[in-house]
Design brief:
Largest sheet: 3 strands, antiparallel
Distance between the termini: 21 Å
Strand order of the largest sheet: 1-2-3
Mean pLDDT: 85
Order of helices and strands: EHHHHHHEEHHHH
Helix content: 40-55%
Amino acid sequence: MDNMRVLPEDLQSLSVKHWPRWAPLLDRALLAKPSDLQPQELHYLRHRAGWTEADVARVLGVSSNVTVARWESGTRRMPRPTERLFRLLLASVLGACSLRSLVEHFKSSWRLADSPLEIHLCLEKNHYEYRWAAPPKKLPPAMRRLFWDVDPLKLDLQRQADYIILRVLEKGDLGDWNWLRWTYGETRIATALKQKRGLAPATAHLWREGLLAQPGGRS
């Protein structure tokens, strides 16, 4: 299978002795994930690094491995600053991505999604993208300003997808664009871009040759 959706619970079935060939791609996707890591993802990454719970406690400076076990069981949430340090250390150990790029990534305000995201891998293209774990049914209130000419509460996110995609690409900001990508995925956005109805040529060119043309995994 060339395209796959990786859910947190799927990670429990992966073998430490026989990691799948797409494990390095998943590593990159998890380290750059723009939402908090889920307990199963923390557990998976620890095993990918070959660390014990005691190792993680030591390098992160927490009191005991009991705290790490609670993070991985979901009974406690790993603090966000600690999670960022955890990701940076893993990037160094796994060699999945450069430390500089990950540090710059963490400086970006779009890193924080307000709901959980899941990972989609395209194995043939060695590419990943993120999608909402629970797809939205309505536009978020902050984006309704972009649809001044209609009633945004009545927009159907599926039937009127092309209209929504093109309007957000033309008028939205970085937060709006990321909501769009996490809602529709880059393939669906690229399909809408081919139509270009209502979209300025310069904007269409920017999206085709910029974000949607970047090689490899991208968030």
